[in-house]
Amino acid sequence: MLITKYLNAEARFTGTVRYFPVAGASVIENYRSPDFYVFLLFEKCSGIHTVDFIDYQQKDLQLHISFPGQIHSWNSGSDTIGHKLLVSKSLIETSLFVTQFAHLKSNGYPVIDISHEVFNHLVREFSAIGHELGLPTPSWDVIHLRTQLVTAITNRLLEEVTDVTSIQKITHPVLVKFQFLVEEYFREMRSVAEYAEKLFVSANYLSALCRKFKGVPPKKIIDQRIILETKRLLYGTDMSIKDLANNLGFPDPASFSNFFKSNTGMYPKKYKNGGSSLK
Question: Does 250 lie in the same domain as 126?
């Protein structure tokens, strides 16, 4: 099972780009994605891929996108054939790769169905990157340019998906900035007023925008991001409740546990031990 075989090698990944072939069945529970981006291109596949506690059906001709720190589980069939590309955060986030997913730092579409034409385009780039990496003296300029092309194609796919599901699309520039700020400051900023101040708008205006375009108040968006990170850390690390509270900016374990219970119906320890079905 090549997917399982390569997980340890992935965890030790320290370069900018790495390629792995994928084949065969694999079952993994609550695997915390290391600190890089992963592009997983399936030619054939069946099963379930769970990304941050949401289930996605695995099918032929799909592109799966993994962000740093996400929690993954999967049960892939024996028919699985594909290609995996690991790309460092620095290459994605500090290079000239202007991509929707890197800009928003939000993996809203981790699984995308693709056409035969798009698959053939992507598989050529994945295979060429793998070939170049296997040379005695690989050209990193070539590797990085081909990786940039993969991210550009992915960005176009995400834009197409977003257009199709326009009802969920963030259409106001203030909300784009708000989501970016939540991703950056959710550990230290809890109140809507703090975010509104950074956005140079009133808290009431930010609330009106969130309700209009997202259907929820801004406080719910902030709290949901904290809850997601809590779940990631509960399943992906061995941190104590005290360490979790400290990591997420709570003054003490009690306030952290009460916050989590008020949003999920369970205390953190109970959720980790028996709440895996709670999405």
Answer: no
What distances in angstroms separate CA 44 from CA 50, 51, 78, 137, 204, one per listed residue?
18, 19, 10, 32, 49
Instruction: Classify residue 59: in a domain, yes or no.
Output: yes
Q: Are residues 119 and 209 in the same domain?
A: no
Q: Which of 61, 76, 87 is nearest to 4 (CA)?
A: 76
Number of domains composing the chain: 2
pTM: 0.80
Residue type, 25: A
Q: How far apart are alpha carbons 233 and 34 in whole angstroms?
A: 12
Residue 279 lies in a domain: no
Residue 251 belongs to a domain with what CATH number? 1.10.10.60
Out of 167, 186, 212, pick the residue that ends a domain: 167
d(CA 151, CA 154): 5
Per-residue model confidence as pLDDT tens digits over 26-49: 888 888 887 889 999 999 999 999
**pLDDT value of residue 202:** 97
* Segments of the chain assigned E as strands: 17-23, 26-32, 36-44, 47-51, 54-58, 62-66, 71-76, 81-88, 111-113
Boundaries of domain holding 23? 2-167
Report residue 277 as tokens: 């079905």
Could you tell me the two tokens for 245?
Answer: 């509270």
Q: Specify the DSSP class assigned to residue 94.
A: S
Q: Order across the sheet with 62-66: list the strands.
A: 17-23, 81-88, 36-44, 62-66, 111-113
CA atoms within 13 A on the CB side of 51: 17
154, 110: one domain: yes
